[in-house]
Design the sequence.
């Protein structure tokens, strides 16, 4: 009998989905208003120094991080995604790819910036606090955080209703997987982060995307 919790099974299915989607992931990117605002915001943020990229996927953001960073450590649970990401950075780039489940991984060094690209919405609400404890443990004193994400969910995906953060998505071959997709509203996300000791401003774009930038409360005072 499978004794794993329902949430553990859901997260396992989520990992399986992204492993299966890897060859087609770049074709699935959302072509919706506001996407260009994210890249502009990240360049304005300037993620300099040692950068930790959580859930790097196929390296969508890694080359942009490398334009500013001294070095990048990019972590993802999918070896298929990591292989694609490695192929998208120049030879000799100062980037280390790490295969690890972020819900069990612990950093072995401190970073000046922690970056997340379209990952936070895939963190279950019950693990929100522990996940941000991981982020705090990874940051050097006066370290900064930047994330981009979206709250895009189609009516067909809402197999458990709009109030649930569990949705169903399909790979191009039609296989269905359940994953986590929390449709954050910026003001509510800011409030949750402040309760955990973070001073992060979350900004909406013209479409379903948003970005957040900030640090631990009191770090720069």
Sequence:
């Amino acid at each position: 009998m499978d004794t794993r919790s329902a949430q553990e099974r859901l997260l396992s299915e989520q990992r399986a989905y992204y492993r299966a989607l890897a060859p087609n992931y770049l074709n699935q990117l959302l072509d919706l208003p506001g996407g260009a605002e994210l890249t502009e915001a990240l360049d304005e943020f300037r993620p300099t120094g040692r950068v930790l990229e959580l859930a790097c996927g196929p390296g969508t953001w890694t080359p942009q991080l490398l334009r500013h960073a001294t070095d990048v450590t990019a972590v993802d649970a999918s070896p298929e995604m990591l292989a694609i990401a490695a192929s998208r950075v120049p030879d000799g780039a100062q980037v280390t790819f790490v295969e690890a489940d972020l819900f069990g991984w612990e950093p072995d060094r401190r970073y000046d910036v922690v970056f997340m690209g379209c990952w936070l919405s895939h963190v279950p609400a019950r693990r929100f606090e522990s996940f941000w404890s991981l982020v705090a443990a990874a940051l050097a004193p006066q370290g900064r955080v930047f994330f981009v994400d979206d709250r895009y969910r189609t009516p067909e995906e809402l197999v458990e209703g709009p109030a649930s953060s569990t949705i169903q998505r399909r790979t191009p071959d039609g296989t269905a997987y359940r994953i986590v997709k929390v449709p954050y509203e910026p003001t509510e996300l800011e409030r949750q982060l402040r309760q955990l000791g973070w001073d992060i401003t979350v900004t909406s774009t013209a479409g379903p995307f948003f970005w957040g930038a900030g640090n631990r409360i009191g770090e720069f005072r």
Strands lie at 49-54, 69-76, 95-99, 111-117, 139-150, 166-170, 176-180, 198-204, 209-216. The mean pLDDT is 93. The two ends are 53 Å apart (CA to CA).
